[in-house]
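Hi Y.,

Following your request, here is the sequence exactly as I used it, all 121 residues.
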Amino acid sequence: MDHRLVPGAGWLSISFNLKHRIVRPLPNLSNILAAIREGDYSIRGRRAEVGDALGEVMLEVNDLGQTLREQRLGALEATALLRTVMAEIDVAYSPLACDSGKRAVASERPSLARAVFDQGH
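Below is the corresponding structure, written out as tokens. Let me know if you'd prefer a different format.
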């Protein structure tokens, strides 16, 4: 066996391993970041390993997606609750506009705003 082939085989093995560990996960990471940018927080990276630099990045991206998903769900729940509360209250409310006398009145329900305004005079 030629001794010159042993180092060549070693380098080939190392390069194949590097390609498998670094180059192959990069498109996956890119796809996850694109999905997050578009608002899809459900996609997760596979093979995220602690102690591996690229694995650590993948873990952080997964955590980022989870955090953004939780924040979006919280905002949706808060909005739904606010809409429910606003639909149930029977008073004039936001946003304010001015009447002809430059006094603030609620414009969301004009009839209620007029009633509230008329009661004040």
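The beta strands are 96-98, 104-106.

Thanks again,
Q.
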